[in-house]
Amino acid sequence: LSACGGESGNGAADDGKITMGFSQVGAESGWRTANTDSVRKAAEEAGIELKFSDAQQKQENQIKAIRSFVQQKVDVIAFSPVVESGWDTVLKEAKDAGIPVILTDRAIDSPDTSLYKTFLGSDFVEEGKKAGQWLVEAYQGKSEQVNIVELQGNTGSAPANDRRDGFAEVIKADPKFKVIASQTGEFTRAKGKEVMDAFLKAHTDIDVLYAHNDDMGLGAIEAIEAAGKKPGVDITIITVDAVRDGMQALADGKINFIVECSPLLGPQLMDLAKKVVAGETVPARVVTEETTFTQEQAKAALPQRQY
Ligand code: AHR
C-alpha cells in the first residue's frame, strides 16, 4: 500500500497503510461541511491516510484531482460527483491504473458500472417522493390550486435531478398542485435568497416552496421575511437535509417539513474502502437510512442533533 516502502502490484508503495484520494464537491452547504467532517474523522479513526481535495463545485477540478490521485498511485479513490455526466474518460484512467473507485453521496449516469466498485449514499428520488407525499397529505381535502415554487440544487447534479423527479412523480397525481416556477439556487443560502426574491417579485400567489436543501430554504426564508410575509405560515416550506440550522427553523415554525439526507457517510466509506482494497466483494449499492421531520419531531430531535 501507499507512502514509503517498496512498490506493490498496482504500483503503490507498501507500508500497510491505505491511502485514499477523496474529491469533495465543495463547501456549499451545512450538509457538505458535516459530510467533510465525517469523512476526515472516519479516515483518522480507521488509520487511512486521506488526500482531500475541494472541487469548489466544478467538474473540471474534480477531474484534475482524480488524475492527480492516479498519478500519486493512491490505493483507492472516493468522490462525490458534482454532476452526473462526463466521468467515463477519467474513471477509465483510474481503472486502467488498477485503482478502485467508490462513489459517495452522488451517483453518475454512466452505463459502464465497471468504472466504480460501489455507490454509497442516499436515495434522492425517494427523498423527493417523501417531500411530495407530505405535501399531498397536508393539502388533502382542499380543492383550490396550490402554487409551488421550487429551488433546485446544482443543475445536472444527481440530487437536483432526482429530488425534482421524485417530487414531480408524487404531486402529478393531483392536478391542483402546480409548479409555477423552478430554478437552481445552487444549494447555497445566498443563491436561495436571491432566487426566492425574484420568485416573490414575479408571483404574488406562492403557496408552497420546495427547496432541494435546507440552506436554500434558509436563504429563501430571509427573502420571504424581507417581503413582509411569514415563512411557514403564509408560504409552506419543505426542504431536504435536516442540518442543525434547518432543524432550528423547523422547530421555530419557519419550515414545515424536512426530509432527512444523512451526511455522516465517513465510517461506512472507510469500511468499504478497506474491503475494496483487500479485493473483497462489496454490494453495488449501499443506501443510507433516513427519516423525515415535522415541527414537533424537530423540537424533540434538536438537542441530540450532531450536525
Ligand atoms: O449531495 C447532497 C446534497 O449536496 C445535499 O443535500 C446538499 O445540501 C448538498 O450541497
From TrEMBL:
Keywords, ordered alphabetically: Signal
Domain Periplasmic binding protein as annotated: residue spans: 22-280
Stretches the record annotates as Disordered: 1-15
Domain of life, per lineage: Bacteria
Keyword Signal: yes
Coiled-coil regions, chain positions: none
Subcellular location: Cell envelope
Family: Belongs to the bacterial solute-binding protein 2 family.
Protein name per UniProt: ABC transporter substrate-binding protein
The species this protein was found in: Plantactinospora sonchi
